[in-house]
Specification:
The complex is a heterodimer of chains A (337) and B (178).
Chain A: H1 2-9, H2 11-44, H3 60-70, H4 81-97, H5 116-137, H6 141-172, H7 177-182, H8 197-210, H9 235-260, H10 278-296, H11 304-332
Helix pairs in contact in A: 2-3, 2-9, 3-9, 4-5, 4-9, 5-6, 6-8, 6-11, 8-9, 8-11, 9-10
Chain B: H1 2-21, H2 25-45, H3 49-74, H4 85-88, H5 90-110, H6 125-133, H7 140-164
Helix pairs in contact in B: 1-2, 2-3
The chains are: A mainly alpha (337), B mainly alpha (178).
Chain lengths: 337, 178
Amino acid sequence: MQTVLNLLEAEPIRLLLSFALILFLVLNLAGILTFAERKVAAYIQLRYGPNRVGPRGFLQPAADVVKLFTKENVMPHRADMWIFLGAPIAMFLPAAAVWLVVPFAPRSVVADLNVGVVFFIALTSIGALGLIMAGYGSRSTFSLLGAMRGAAQMISYEVPLILSLLGVIMLSGSLSFQDVVNSQSGGFWHWYFLPQLPMFITFYIAGVAEARRVPFDLPEGESEIVGGFMVEYSGMTWGLIQASEFASMALVSAITATLFLGGWQPPFEFLDLGNFNWLWFAIKTALIIFTFQWIRWSLPRLRMDQLMDFGWKILVPVCLIWLFVTAGAMLLLPSVF
Amino acid sequence: MTIAFGFLAGMVLVSALGVVVSRNVVHSALFMSGSFLGVAGFFVMLNAPSLAAFQVLIYVGAVTVVILFGIMFTQRPQVRHYRTIINRQFWAGLCVAAGVGAFLSYVLWIEDWSSAQAGNGPREVAQLGRDMLGVSPGSEIFALLFQVVSVLLLVAIVAAIVVSRRKVGTGVDRGVEE
């Protein structure tokens, strides 16, 4: 037994196994989140939602997956085949790979990189590439429109996303997620969302935009450009795009929980669960995912110029001002920090 | 380690070849991102994850996306194919490539690599930051270079706004009553 465990701990095997486990987790997460999305939507609109397959409809995701696998994968005749088929993979893999640096519990993190935050930003920025590939590869006007909107939106909202992380990095003095979580120990009043409230709100909004959720779902915009960059996809390629959307939504929630809400730290010290602290992480992430869904079914979509105005004229200045406030506070009151 | 190096080197070279040979500008840009990713992989192998992350962030995430964005904004689909791009500047390109290759080989040859070791030197992210800001001894010049580059970028941004701005009275902007 011990030799097997040692073998599994050896470096290339450990990383490969963990990555396989992460892929498994993310794919399942996507299935569960589709179900959650439909149920939340239904209850917000005073309906029951899916309730035929299994008890209260719990087996609906499994049925959906079977349906997607058996569906034919239709491709437009003039599509650019390799780009068209590569786009879902280029969207899914970065969203799944960032989970490698997310700390789930005190010692449960696949790769504790000392530049974890930069790793997160770098891999999120690749997402725009997959979007453009999908839009261009389909060779369809709606797809191209959606891709252009998506690229513009993701480039613009990356700026407030990165700026809003700087406050946390300054306070914790580290780019590693594990260090950021450790520096928020001891009760919820030590979490960074209190001293960094404007940054927290900015990061949340920019995160919604990066995950392309309502009210920032212009690349999809089903009422104007009928589905945007993914209008030509069907079957499992469409399923992979959906999976990557849900994975990035869960990812943004998990990063928000890690950076601003203490990660796996319990809200009060006496609620410390030791190795089971991942429960706190799961609860926080699930709550943030729920707020994403709540917003989706409550708000209308922004217009393109409103989107750009909001990103550049409100979020970026707020970040810059609060950056100076944080720096000034750290300089003038070194005893507090 | 050798297998990983061979894989990455093959990826970089094949993608770089694809950039030059492919007849579609969008394909070239995507091949270029593959080449950049391979270089990021080299940085990981050299024990410099921060450089790898910045390589992915800046080159794959920003430069390639902006290039693709530019291609799609400026060209109609019919003109995206360059049939004769390989033939046009064959000799000039060969001379430049051979020159760069000769220079790099020369540097590789005269440098003493016996003391070099992966993961040493100012590659730690904290040290890198201090060097960039010129706070650590011997790196004061970097602060100046950093500021000069920032000023250059600022000038470029302002110039882009001035160039792309509509003159008052020519054309009505969306939602703006002139």
